[in-house]
Write a structure and sequence with these properties.
The protein is α/β, with parallel strands linked by helices and 703 residues long.
Length: 703
């Protein structure tokens, strides 16, 4: 991440800087972000007279950022970056927006437990066979499409290879041999590629005929390569003719270029190779001449070529041997004949290394000239890999193609959570059906106990929408999904103590973000809200938020609202597009069985004590909780509240706005009578009020 130097001390950047590790941030001088200079850099880099052709002539912030990037690369690489030959603009209006909070809550790329890929949607969807395909799939998942026609075309391409298993498997097998062309292209363009990189490029390009032959049998335009393959085949032929299969990774020591590529090099190689034979013959000759069988002819970079003899044979050394070095147990010698040979061979070795280095650079430069073709191929291979991958996972996971609509309806029949169904063991995943629209089923209030599966249902709907809009088939029996422009989630909460933010503050900030940025085409997931404060405050906030989402801009916004505030089910009485659902459970004595099924209607029970028992809460605590619950439900004031707390309650002149769980039912009637304004009450209203009091009084136990 590149930032201007002055942003280091800018208060408006502090929250951003604190959230990002220092290792990802580089500060550069402010002038690098100047728009005018940035435009000049880009025009010079792309060799154009304007940026109109790239669609960014008027995007000042984009020009500033791209210009700063070119400046940074120029400063750090100190070399031409010819491969940077264009710029592509992205408009957020073309993609389904998923903010970072929702991406985290839905566990699209990283799980909430340890931040790894395991247990994420990506882990289920990613069976790509190339590195390029894996990166592109991640991008598709993070930025699903908005255009219905583009989504359908992508699904058409997936469907075609889903129904052609032979072609699909053959293509995937061929793609497994393709190296990371994007990374190779980057190394080539920066002049960092070594011989092994070029060999990897050649082996990848040699798979191209098989890949193209397989793709010719498919009809979708996504499988038609728009680039020119001829230069790529020529590159593969050049590298095959020039680079040895066992080429060294170091490019300036020789051992890279094949024999037969250049006659001059062949001659130098011959001298080097013949020299080895000559040394072997010399060693045999000297052993016979001296009678020293342990005599050896050796070489090192410090002393060059020498004859090594053990010191026990020193009396056998001929007079023409010249002592070069004395060791503890041996002596090293040279001869005039060996010196002449050394001069000839080492000269040839040096010349060979220099010549091979020059030839390799010429080959690398030729590859650089065609690097744009390599990058075009890399993106094409990545796309093909992604489409084949989506077809593969659709087959192996029983995913089906959803219909895409623009009428606001989300209809899912027997939908499954793609990650949860993979993770659970020992039980069958229970599919659920759901319907949302803008006329009758817009805000769904979902109640039910913890562990019943509310969160799974909520996340499942959001995930299926994301999968569909990235062009993926989905785990359903049947589905019709409306185009969604943004997905928001308010799920759980973590405090941010470093910023002085409590769990409740984080929850409220996330809620504020949703209410301020949602549109009538958004999908909102609210999994509990208002739990981090007092009961009455939390209920009030949850109620107001649900009402706001129903009344949003006079149209409302599709919302799944899970809650333990059973009072919210009353909203369905006053709001036409609010509907109540609950996750069914079955009671078996004191046990509960989670049926995991979403059914119509609300529930007024949370089964919290039963869930606590399942979690391992000690028996005495469970027994005491049951007794307290019975007392509360009976409004048994005496068994719960001490006389001190009663006196304290009576001394309060004005109650705080707080739900009193221990208030007597008759107290409610008294308060209603105290609040009514007799003078302003019409006779008919008085009769209705009296009837209401009469009905409530019949519910009271006799004193």
């Amino acid at each position: 991440i590149l930032l201007a130097e002055t942003s280091r001390d800018d208060p408006s950047f502090q929250s951003v800087l604190s959230a990002i590790s220092d290792k990802y941030i580089t500060f550069i001088k402010d002038g690098a972000f100047d728009v005018r200079r940035g435009r000049e850099r880009l025009v010079q880099q792309f060799k154009t007279i304007s940026l109109e052709g790239f669609g960014c002539e008027k995007l000042k912030a984009g020009i500033s950022a791209a210009g700063a990037l070119v400046f940074y690369v120029d400063e750090t690489q100190k070399r031409a970056i010819d491969h940077f030959s264009g710029i592509e603009t992205y408009s957020l209006s073309n993609y389904l927006l998923i903010d970072d909070v929702s991406c985290r809550n839905l566990e699209l790329l990283q799980n909430l437990r340890n931040g790894s890929k395991k247990g994420t949607l990506l882990s289920v969807l990613d069976q790509t066979v190339t590195s390029m395909g894996g990166r592109m799939l991640r991008q598709w998942l993070r930025y699903p499409l908005l255009d219905p026609e583009k989504i359908r075309l992508r699904m058409d391409a997936v469907a075609e290879v889903r129904n052609s298993p032979g072609i699909r498997q053959a293509l995937r097998e061929s793609l497994k041999s393709v190296y990371d062309l994007e990374r190779l292209g980057s190394r080539i363009s920066m002049g960092h590629a070594n011989a092994r990189d070029l060999l990897a490029l050649r082996r990848s390009l040699e798979k191209l005929p098989d890949i193209m032959t397989g793709l010719e049998r498919l009809n979708s335009g996504y499988y038609h390569f728009a680039g020119d393959t001829a230069p790529l085949y020529d590159l593969a032929a050049l590298i095959k003719r020039a680079i040895r299969e066992d080429a060294r990774p170091v490019i300036n020591e020789g051992g890279i270029i094949k024999t037969g590529y250049l006659a001059e090099l062949d001659e130098l190689i011959s001298i080097s190779q013949n020299g080895k034979d000559w040394l072997a013959r010399l060693e045999v000759k000297e052993k016979e001449a001296t009678g020293i069988n342990s005599l050896k002819v050796r070489y090192n970079k410090v002393f060059g070529y020498y004859i090594e003899v053990s010191r026990v044979h020193s009396e056998k050394i001929p007079p023409h041997y010249i002592r070069k070095q004395t060791l503890v147990n041996a002596e090293r010698y040279i001869t005039d004949e060996l010196k002449q040979f050394e001069s000839k061979v080492l000269g040839a070795e040096d010349k060979r290394a220099l010549l091979e280095y020059r030839l390799f650079n010429e080959i690398r430069q030729q590859v650089q000239k065609n690097n744009k073709d390599v990058q075009v191929l890399a993106r094409f291979i990545a796309r093909v890999d992604c489409l084949l991958n989506l077809a593969e996972i659709a087959v192996h996971n029983d995913f089906n193609r959803p219909d895409i609509n623009t009428d606001g309806q989300i209809v899912i029949e027997d939908g499954r959570h793609p990650v949860v169904e993979k993770m659970i063991t020992g039980e069958r995943f229970v599919p659920n059906s759901i319907r949302m629209d803008n006329e009758q089923n817009q805000v769904l209030i979902i109640t039910g106990p913890n562990m019943a599966g509310k969160s799974t249902v909520l996340r499942q709907v959001a995930i299926l929408v994301i999968m569909a809009q990235m062009g993926c088939f989905v785990p359903v029996r049947k589905a019709s999904l409306s185009i969604t422009d943004r997905i928001f989630t308010r799920v759980g909460a973590l405090d941010n103590l470093s910023q002085g933010q409590s769990t409740f503050m984080v929850e409220m900030q996330e809620t504020a973000n949703i209410l301020n940025n949602a549109t009538e085409n958004s999908l909102i997931i609210m999994d509990e809200i208002g739990r981090g404060t007092s009961t009455f405050d939390g209920l009030s906030i949850a109620w107001a938020v649900a009402e706001y989402l129903h009344d949003f801009r006079g149209k409302g916004v599709k919302t799944l609202f899970a809650t333990h505030y059973h009072e919210l089910t009353e909203l369905a009485r006053s709001k036409d597009r609010v509907k109540n659902f609950n996750i069914a459970v079955k009671e078996w004595g004191e046990e509960i069985i989670f049926l995991r099924k979403l059914v119509n209607g609300g529930t007024n029970r949370s089964y919290g004590i039963q869930v606590a028992r399942l979690a391992g809460i000690p028996g005495p605590v469970i027994q005491r909780a049951r007794k307290i619950l019975i007392d509360i439900e009976k409004q048994d004031h005496g068994s719960i509240i001490s006389s001190n707390s009663r006196r304290r309650s009576e001394s309060q002149g004005k109650r705080h706005v707080q739900m009193d769980l221990f208030r007597r039912p008759e107290q409610v009637l008294i308060e209603k009578l105290q609040k009514i304004d007799i003078a302003r009450t019409r006779p008919v209203d008085a009769l209705n009020f009296l009837n209401e009091l009469h009905e409530k009084a019949k519910e009271l136990e006799p004193v």
